[in-house]
Design goal:
Layout (H helix, E strand, L loop, with lengths): L6 E5 L2 E5 L1 H13 L4 E4 L21 E5 L4 E10 L4 H20 L3 E12 L1 H4 L4
Parallel strand pairs: 5-6
Antiparallel strand pairs: 1-2, 3-5, 4-5
Helix pairs in contact: 1-2
Length: 128
């Protein structure tokens, strides 16, 4: 279940609250920069097909859980045909965790990758 709870950090002079949507956008951008990732996918499959999200709503393919210990991230992605899925998923986990920890200074407890689809080679090559 996704958390709508904001990420909250308290400091001596006050507190900082980061919207879950901002955290999801950071994760989506890190994912978009990973080799082999075509894009984010909607969480549910429609008629057995993954819906590829555009960059404006890519955060819909991410679920966050915020706890006192840190963040848990669930990613729903479409990968490119011909890549080693497990290797791409592992690189994606590392990239997202690094990006979130770097930008938010909050520990990332886990990053789970759900591959919702594979882009066929004919779509990649422009249909030829």
């Amino acid at each position: 279940m996704p958390s709508n709870r904001p990420l909250m950090q308290t400091y001596p002079l006050g507190s900082v609250e980061v919207s879950p949507r901002v955290v999801a956008v950071l994760a989506a951008r890190a994912a978009g920069d990973c080799y082999g990732i075509v894009g984010m996918s909607a969480r549910g499959l429609r008629d057995g097909l993954a819906e590829l999200l555009n960059r404006d709503n890519a955060e819909r393919g991410i679920e966050l859980r915020v706890s006192d210990e840190g963040l848990s991230v669930e990613l729903y992605v479409v990968v490119d045909h011909g890549v080693r899925i497990l290797e791409v998923a592992h690189n994606l986990m590392s990239a997202v965790a690094y990006s979130l920890e770097k930008h938010l200074s909050v520990p990332v407890l886990e990053v789970n990758v759900n591959v919702q689809g594979i882009r066929p080679p004919e779509e990649r090559d422009g249909g030829s």
